Amino acid sequence: MSVLDNWEQWKDFLGDRLHQAQNEGMNKQVINDLAYQIGDYLAKQVDPKNEQERILADLWSVASPEEQHAIANMMVKLVQNDGTQQ
To answer: What is the superkingdom listed in this entry's lineage (predicted)?
Structure first.
């Protein structure tokens, strides 16, 4: 089972990666830029595996680049308290 198959597992995975990046000293702007790049890749290359991912993909597809950055930033905020290594 892929982490993309389950929304809670996906958020934990993202939370773990976020905490890892922060622990390595990555600043907020770099993290947000990476979140945008990952979101863009997923929207273009990966078929959504659950209802939440479908909603994000649909929103991403109609958003301007600035709005896509806002979505990516909100995802970072959403997962900041998630992860298996809190």
So the answer is: Bacteria
Q: Residue 54 sits in a domain of what CATH number?
A: 1.10.760
Residue-range definition of the domain harbouring residue 12? 3-79
**What is the pTM assigned to this prediction?**
0.82
Tens digits of residue pLDDT in 45-69 = 989 888 998 999 999 999 999 999 9
Domains identified in the chain, total number: 1
Measured CA to CA, the distance from residue 48 to residue 52 in angstroms comes to 8
* pLDDT score at 14: 87
What is the chain written as a DSSP string?
--GGG-HHHHHHHHHHHHHHHHHTT--HHHHHHHHHHHHHHHHHH----SHHHHHHHHHHHHS-HHHHHHHHHHHHHHHTT-SS--
